[in-house]
Amino acid sequence: MPPPADTYPWPMPDAAVDLSVVIPIYNEEAVLPLLVERLRPVAESWGVTHEVLCVDDGSTDATPVLLQRLRREWPQVRVVRLRANAGHQAAISAGLARARGRWVVTIDADLQDPPEVIGEMLAVARSQDVDVVYGVRHDRSSDTRFKRWTARAFYRSIRALSDVDAHVDAGDFRLMSRATVDAVNALPEHDRVLRLVVPALGFPSASVGYARAPRAAGASKYPLGKMIRLSVDGVTGFSIAPLRFATWLGLLGGLAAIGVLVFAVVEMLLGNTLPGWTSTVVIVAGVGAVQLLALGILGEYVGRTYAALQARPTYFVAHDSLETEPDGSRGSGPGPRQTLT
What we know:
alpha/beta; 11 helices; elongated
């Protein structure tokens, strides 16, 4: 098992808070003030001890400066800065590794997922006694038709190709119990796709629906290329169906080659053969395409195995504001302490 990317031994029992809000942030100087304006009043209404753990994923704009200013103005804010941009899923993993909450919620900074729903998630988790509460987008009218279609196709494909019961239209907005977070942190795999990892654990779960809003400000950090990469990681990380598909392609290609051979021999015996450059090129190109596709699928799995054997951490933490307060006092909420169960 490769060593964990984060080896800081945080004292959970004494320093824990009731709720950690993990927010991966990358170049969000435009939306950060709007996020604080929405999130802070909501957090103060929870009446539980909490921390707002902002994971700065190597931002290159004014985001680090804004986060340090925010930490001075809002005592519950905790800033974890990564040394370099590691990606959205790695930033969430870094936040989960350092979150101290008995409950942990992950939410993006773009306000497409409303922070007002977090209180409802807490209530559902406590009343139904579940470990995970998924935020499900029952209204995605703010997304483009292409994005809605590809998202549904991705989740339905994952459910068909693997045993993962992934919620359709559920992203990375979810509430998890401490047991769930510990289970995720214990997993050794690289290139995690957390929206599939968490359902794969099979812990008791529920869902809360909400309308997905347009991005509040700034540009999307998930262009088409990253979405494709996420989809490939999801499929190759949770299903061996593509390997079986490559096997079937090879088998069908072999049968087709035998059929062509029989046809050629029969035509030769009947004296109907004519020199044909086109047919030869088509056959060779078809067989070559099948072989290359099969090799590409195999290469994806070999690459994941190679990365796992290297055991390189997916992120490196440069700074954690909690290190300056080892007693954990900065995570305390203003209201009376209420233990969530």
